[in-house]
From TrEMBL:
The keyword Glycosyltransferase does not apply. This is Uncharacterized protein LOC121527473. The keyword Transmembrane helix applies. Keywords: Membrane, Transmembrane, Transmembrane helix.
C-alpha cells in the first residue's frame, strides 16, 4: 500500500513538473513572438531581423481585402491578452491546496495545451520571417498552424471545463469565470484573428502565384469569412450552446478586421463591390453579436430564478453525515 502511494505521488510530481515546463515554454515563446512582431514595424526597421516592415510587404502584394495599417495594433492587443492568460496559468501553479496546484487539479488545460501554444508562437515567428523575404507560398504553408491549433485548444478548454464544471462550481467557482472570460475569450479572439489573416494570405497566394483576378479572390475571401461566421453562430446558438455561449470576443474581432478592410478600400467616388460586401458583413456581424448578447442575458435571467437547482447541487456534494441537516423539512 505504501509503495502504491509513493508511486502515485511520484507520478503527480512528474506531471506537475511537465506542466510547469510547458507553461514556461509557452510564456517564453509568447514574449519572443511579441518582440519579433514589434521589430517588424515601420519604426524599427531595418534591424538585425528585418530589412523591411510587415506593412511594406503587404503593400507589395495588395488585395481589395488587405487590411489597413492600423490593424497591426490588434496583434498587440491580442498578444497582451494571451500573455495575461498565460500568467494566469503560472499563478495557478503557485496556488496550491490539499490536491496540489490549481492548474493541475483538475487538469482543464493539460501540458499538451501549452505545448500547442508554443508551436503556434514558433510558427508565427517563422511566418514573419518568410513574409519579410516575400516567400508568400511558404508563409501560406505555415500560416494554417495558428488558427487550426488555436481552435483545437478551444475544443480542449471547452470540453475539459464542461467535464469538471460540477466539481469546480462547489470547490473553485472562480476558476470557471476566469477560464470562460479570460482564457476562452482570449483564445477565440486569437483564433479568429489568425484565421482572418490566413484567409487574406491565401488570397494573396492565389492572385500572385496562380494569377487569378483580384476582385474574384477578394470576394472569395469575404465569402469564406461569412460562411465561417454563420457556422459559428449556428453552433453557438443551437448545437454547442452550452460550450460556446460565454464566448463574446469573436464578433468584435471580426468587425474590427472587416473595418480595417473597409477603410483601406473605401473610395467615396469609386465604391467597389467588395467594399459594399465588406460593409454588409460588418452589419451582419453587429446583428449576430447583439443577438448573442441579448439571448445570453435572457438565459442568465431565467436560470438565476431557478433556486431548487442550486439547493440540489449543494445537497449532493455535502458529506453523507451532513445531508440530513440540509434536506428540506416536509
Amino acid at each position: 500500500m505504501r509503495l502504491q502511494m509513493t508511486s502515485v505521488s511520484s507520478r503527480n510530481r512528474y506531471h506537475v513538473v511537465i506542466h510547469a515546463v510547458f507553461i514556461v515554454l509557452a510564456v517564453i515563446t509568447q514574449v519572443m513572438t511579441s518582440v519579433v512582431f514589434n521589430l517588424g514595424k515601420d519604426s524599427w526597421v531595418p534591424n538585425a531581423l528585418f530589412k523591411t516592415s510587415h506593412r511594406n510587404v503587404s503593400e507589395t502584394f495588395p488585395l481589395e481585402v488587405t487590411m489597413d495599417w492600423w490593424s497591426q495594433l490588434y496583434w498587440n492587443m491580442i498578444d497582451v491578452w494571451s500573455t495575461v492568460w498565460l500568467f494566469y496559468g503560472v499563478v495557478g501553479l503557485l496556488n496550491r491546496d490539499a490536491l496540489g496546484p490549481e492548474s493541475c487539479n483538475p487538469d482543464i488545460h493539460p501540458p499538451m495545451f501549452y505545448l500547442m501554444w508554443t508551436m503556434i508562437n514558433i510558427s508565427r515567428m517563422l511566418s514573419m520571417s518568410l513574409w519579410e523575404s516575400h516567400a508568400i507560398n511558404g508563409t501560406s504553408m505555415v500560416g494554417w498552424i495558428p488558427p487550426v491549433l488555436s481552435f483545437y485548444m478551444l475544443y480542449v478548454s471547452y470540453s475539459n471545463l464542461d467535464k469538471h464544471k460540477a466539481w469546480l462550481s462547489i470547490n473553485r467557482p472562480a476558476v470557471i469565470s476566469w477560464t470562460r472570460y479570460l482564457i476562452q475569450n482570449g483564445l477565440a479572439a486569437f483564433a479568429w484573428w489568425s484565421l482572418l489573416n490566413y484567409l487574406v494570405g491565401l488570397g494573396i497566394v492565389f492572385k500572385y502565384s496562380a494569377g487569378m483576378p483580384d476582385p474574384l479572390i477578394s470576394t472569395a475571401v469575404l465569402t469564406l469569412v461569412s460562411l465561417c461566421t454563420v457556422t459559428w453562430f449556428l453552433l453557438q446558438s443551437c448545437l454547442l450552446k452550452k460550450y460556446l455561449c460565454y464566448t463574446f470576443s469573436v464578433y468584435p474581432m471580426l468587425i474590427l478586421g472587416l473595418g480595417a478592410m473597409f477603410t483601406r478600400s473605401y473610395r467615396i467616388h469609386d465604391l467597389g463591390a467588395n467594399t459594399v460586401f465588406c460593409g454588409l458583413l460588418m452589419i451582419l456581424m453587429t446583428i449576430l453579436s447583439i443577438t448573442h448578447l441579448i439571448s445570453e442575458c435572457l438565459r442568465q435571467d431565467n436560470s438565476s430564478t431557478v433556486e431548487p437547482n442550486v439547493t440540489f447541487v449543494e445537497t449532493v456534494w455535502q458529506p453523507e453525515g451532513n445531508m440530513k441537516n440540509k434536506l428540506p423539512k416536509c
